[in-house]
Design goal:
globular, alpha+beta, Beta-Lactamase, single chain, two-stranded antiparallel sheet, 6-stranded antiparallel beta sheet, about 240 residues
């Protein structure tokens, strides 16, 4: 697991996040992110081995596999073993670390849902975002990484473009003609941010959601950016 050597300022530029800082200066935002990074690293050093979810429940997909049927779970859980190439010690340690990062985010954000996705080729050799760790309600395991699916999915859009998508009012966003992939109709706000490797290549995304509007303040975004800067070092 190599360290992702990307500064906060570089990340803000690559992800196009400056517009979401409001009245907070970039300097102040960077300092807050760095404080969160230190807290997260300390947490990871002290945390025990998180329970690994090699399998997790997913919603049944609708006709054509495009949309999830909310509240209807598929009979078979999704299994990460195949897409990760087996349950190796390396993969086990990676998933434990990502599980701990998700636990840290849950503790400090208080948001209703969070997921970490890696860009990979699935068993059909198709580029996808695969959910490696999460908390909250059952949700889709793989998001196709193609322009067609990106028309309805923020996850796929961010996974292709590397540009963050922050929606503080889903209802208003839809009312303004925005496309939105609805996994849970209770979600009122979503922030989808890219993950970058050392070379600047998009390595995946994180997705955070809440049942309340206007939760993604500058302070909330600082925590999420700290997570995004930490995750790539632990991807399998």
């Amino acid at each position: 697991m190599s360290q992702a050597d990307i500064s906060v300022s570089e990340y803000l530029n690559r992800a196009g996040l400056a517009q979401h800082l409001g009245a907070v200066t970039v300097t102040a935002f960077v300092e807050t992110v760095q404080q969160w990074q230190l807290k997260l690293q300390h947490f990871l050093q002290q945390a025990g081995a998180a329970q690994v979810q090699w399998q997790y429940k997913v919603p049944e997909l609708g006709e054509g596999g495009a949309c999830s049927l909310f509240g209807q779970l598929a009979e078979e859980p999704y299994d990460l073993t195949a897409i990760l190439g087996g349950q190796s010690e390396h993969n086990q340690l990676a998933l434990q670390a990502l599980g701990n990062i998700a636990a840290f985010y849950r503790e400090h954000s208080g948001l209703d849902w969070f997921g970490i996705y890696q860009a990979r080729a699935n068993i059909n050799a198709e580029p996808v975002l695969v959910k490696l760790a999460y908390y909250g309600a059952a949700s889709r395991a793989e998001f196709p990484l193609n322009t067609e699916f990106a028309k309805i999915s923020n996850n796929s859009t961010v996974g292709l473009s590397g540009k963050a998508k922050v929606i503080n009012d889903v209802t208003a966003y839809l009312g303004g003609g925005g496309e939105y992939y609805t996994c849970d109709p209770k979600v009122q706000a979503e922030a989808c941010l890219p993950l970058f490797d050392q070379s600047g290549k998009i390595a995946g995304i994180v997705d955070a959601e809440d049942f309340n509007k206007n939760v993604f303040t500058a302070d909330a975004m600082a925590l999420l950016v700290a997570v995004c800067l930490t995750v790539p070092a632990y991807l399998p």
